[in-house]
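Internal QA ticket QA-208
Title: Verify multi-chain structure generation after dependency bump
Assignee: T.L.

Test input:
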Amino acid sequence: MQINYAKKEVSCKLVYYGPGMSGKTTNLEIIHEKVPNQNKGEMTSIATEGDRTLFFDFLPLDLGKVRGMSTKFQLYTVPGQVYYSSTRKLVLQGADGVIFVADSQAEKLAENIESLKDLEKNLDEYGLKLNEIPLVIQWNKRDLPSAMDVEELDKEVNWPGAATTEAVAAMGDGVLPTLKLAASIILDRLNSKEPGAETKTAKMSPEDKAKKEEVYVASVNADKISRGYFNQYCQAQYRLAAKSDEIDDFKKFSPEDKSKLLESLVNHVLLLQDAKSRNIGASPDEVEAQINAFSKRFNSSGDLDGYLAKRKLSMDNLRNEATKNVIIGKIIKDIIPDVKTKLHVSDSEIAEYYNANVNKFGGKDLEGVKAHVKAGLKNKRKKALLGAFFLKLRENAIIEVYKDKI
Amino acid sequence: MKDEHLRTKRLVYYTEDLGLVDKLLGEFLKLASAKSIYLVDKDGHLVTQKGHSQSINPETISALVAGSFAATKEMARVLGEAEFTVMFHQGKKDHIHISLVSERAITAIVFDDQTTVGMVNLYSKELTAKLGKIFDIASKRAVQKEQIEEDYSDSVKERLDDMFKD
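Actual output:
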């Protein structure tokens, strides 16, 4: 079933199943004949020259707008012959309900049973059970002399305990009631099992209302970034990066700085999305390890608390940063397996950098600044690698920035 | 829950996602100079369409596209491939290019000699990557505000009664 809120449309798929020559295509033809023109589309058949269904017949029904939703039923038949099992399975994909057209004649009993078993097997491949899917069995060809009693058929064939109808499809009898019954069973489930239906009658809380009126500053592949979140991010980044503990209560940013911060937040979101698609996450242990590494800067845990308090940072801010770092580390390992060699800074590179910038070092000799230069160069290289990675992510992403909302 | 499968298999498309999708489809048509594009889910329901191809019934083309895609998937399986991601049918005037979008949908692009299959292929690759991302994210999102009205089912049944009155 497809529920398309953008187009205000509900579309259900109903499949006619059953043994060869039991009357599945005839059911569709009668529906096509009887339904008013404005409610039906063209009937399409993929059939052999001998008019046996090869793949499927298809008939779209359009019920028009119901309660604001344009409502459609897509009717399909499957080929009945035993050897078309694989094509039958394909047509069953995504079926919301099945009408099993059984041939009432005594000599067809075994074929009916075989076909219902085939349905059971094919449904199973989609993880569905015969007694769970909306199913109606139509005892067709009631007019033929060798037709078995309905009670008997029910005993022999209807082991799933499905609802049943009687029909003489070739004469048009019982076709529409069968369709209606199947449609009702599907519809009854729709309303009772609508995801989130339990919240339908709940009143909107103030927080929900606030959420509804939320202003967004950007959208990244349909993930929206709210202004509130962006502002928090800006403050947290500023506090984390501040050189001293002397921080503003609420830092005001220039438009340029805000743009830059938004860019970095967009990158952050892209990164998390990419990590998700790669199934990369940060386990609580890994995050704790990152935080521990950070807190080594402090002599005691009290100092860390003090640092956070002075900077008005919460443990959550720190945790977010740690999570990001863990994930970045993992993604880099994922996309650049030889990252260690790529980030390796050789002694000659350090010397070269030192010689080119010797006056920056205020007379200190190479040995004295080596570690510092090495870390700097490594960082630069890491940034370049990350930059290229973000560029690639951005190329394939749909990013919208609402500058006027910043 | 008894029919958990049915419930979770329901395909729901929300307004905000499809707004973005429609925009992308429109941009694609311009870039690739194609005539029309149909986004179809794998079960054969039309999701949305852009552009104009007279004489094409969108519902029928959706069912056929999904069916033939499913059939080629079986062919792929027989060959030991997971899936063929692109299909192309050449006609005298009009051609159709069909490609898979993530695990759940298919684009069918109708074009003529205003453009080439190479152009269509090139831009559709970009397009399907972007659409895949949107679906991926949409499918992980839990919050949903849009709902179907409570007495919808009963109203549909009444409509069916009217329709089938002899």
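Spot checks passed. The first helix of chain A runs from residue 24 to 34.
Status: verified.
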